[in-house]
Amino acid sequence: MQQTLTRPVKAVRRAPAPHVARGRTHPMWFLLPAFAILFVFFFLPTLFNFVYAFTDWSSFKSEIRFAGVDNFAYLLSDGTLFSALRVTVIYATLVALFQNLFGFGLAVLLERDTWLNRAARLAFLVPVLMSALAVGYVFQALLKPDGSLNDLLSALTGQRVDVAWLGSTTWTLVLAAVIHAWKWMGLSMLIYLAGLKTIPEDVTEAARIDGATPWQAFWSVRFPLLAPAVTFNVATALLGSMNGFDIVQALTGGGPARSTEILNIFIYRTFGQGLFAQATAMSLVLFLMVALLAFPVIRVLRRREEIL
Amino acid sequence: MTVPVFGSAARRRAPSPVARGWAARLRPFAVVALVVPVMGVPLWLVVVTAGKSQGEALSPDLSLPSRWHLWENLAQVWQQGEVPMAFLGSLLVVAPSVVLVLTFGSMASWILARRASRPNAVLYALAISGIVLPPAVVTIVLLLRQLGLAGSPVGMIGVYVGIYLSTVIFFVTGFVRTVPVSLEEAARMDGAGPVRVFFSVILPLLRPVLATATILICLYVWNDVFYAFFVVGGRLDTLPLNLFQVANAGLYLNNWHLIFAYVILMSLPLLIVFAIAQRRIISGITGGAVK
């Protein structure tokens, strides 16, 4: 129906569109405001990154001098560069994993439009609206050794539980990723729900008639059709967490023993100490890491969509 | 491209593709058993702690306050946290950022979608690169100083517009491609110039996708503390910045009742907007994302 309506329109469009007339009907100066702002506030600072990462810019000196790779050498020598990179990559991967597992699980659980499911969907959207900083503080209070989670566990098990949830150099990072996923899982859920609802009824119907069990019908027919939703969710979760700051800062401030210090917390801390060039060097590292990781991930996900 | 989410599409479908029987009957209980601990406990903690006196809130737990102090705490935070100024500061930054990013983004998207040429493909790739690439926060500070915009709302607005233009251009360009050119041509026949055509024909048609973008960008900018810290930290109050400074400061150390009262005050505006427009917001977010 829709196609028969739009096809002739497309045919008409192609015929009378000589290249010259476009300049009058779609003038290039419409691009100007957007690109001027992009240039000044986005590209220029990024270019500056490549320059000032190699200087001794700090709050202690008035002039800025070229310093070669000193900043990187320093960050490498005391191990912060690799530890911050490692922490950030682990954090981002875990967030992408958890956020999608939770979001997908919720979408499947709440797929039917009952009043209870609608209410539950709204409840899961509240953290999406809350500030990430606030979420971090809430969980800091919840996870204190004398906090509510231990109280609840004590009441359930009948014994005194006092786990220092935020005191482990290994597991606190995982917990931070779970909390990041908790904040954003409502959004992932919405997007998976939208994906599930775009799948036409006759596709699943056909699978059923061909003798597929509900389990098979779900995993081999409906799940592959969710590919665009998966791409969107994985990409936004990865990028959001690589750029993360608020939740971890409010939850642990980078501790214990800097085991949760993601790149942006490092940048924030060194900037606060007045070591601007070092912060810039780390900012450049973040830029390069995201550029190197994000584009292949998106390309792989996109290709998977095309195959399907 | 856009799919009405909770309305017609759902009704069209036959009862349910999922197994009926005991699994279906247990499902509502599973939903409740999940929502209560996962969402209920943290949100309950915020509300009861915000209602406690300082002594009771020293170690926040899930018990009810012996006497509710919610209003006193909110009032105290309102004054000490300079909420009115911070609220105005947030508004001063968020509103112009959103308006500008949507206007400039849509203008650029219209041209990028309609004039498909090789240089424009490069421009488009450049324009949307910001979705992926992180902004250079530290050197932005230096640049703003050189421009004389350090710490000013104008600088902050510029930074937000620069960061989120990519998202807008990405969403809107995809949408413009689905709008038939014939609609523009009709207006052009009547003698409308490009500015008229854009503002009175194209922009109204973009409403669904602009709604999606508005919601997402409001969410990001309203709650942002990281970029605000670098650009306007200490010079201009915004709600998240004040929460951050206040929670770090000695004044609020272990004063959980005040931190959580602030959290409530700060989340209220978005929650109210959401409560009023939840249907449209939900279909807006989902409509734009999955094509």
UniProtKB/TrEMBL annotation, chain B:
Residues 87-277 form the ABC transmembrane type-1 domain. Its main location: membrane. PROSITE patterns: ABC_TM1 (PS50928). One of its GO terms (cellular component) is plasma membrane. It comes from the Bacteria. Signal peptide: none annotated. The chain crosses the membrane at residues 29-50, 86-110, 122-144, 156-176, 197-222, 256-277. Keywords: Cell membrane, Membrane, Transmembrane, Transmembrane helix, Transport. One of its GO terms (biological process) is transmembrane transport. It is found in: Cell membrane. It is a multi-pass membrane protein. The keyword ATP-binding does not apply. It holds the Pfam family BPD_transp_1. SUPFAM superfamilies: MetI-like. Belongs to the binding-protein-dependent transport system permease family. PANTHER family: ABC TRANSPORTER PERMEASE PROTEIN MG189-RELATED, ABC TRANSPORTER PERMEASE PROTEIN MG189-RELATED-RELATED. This is Sugar ABC transporter permease. It comes from [Actinomadura] parvosata subsp. kistnae.
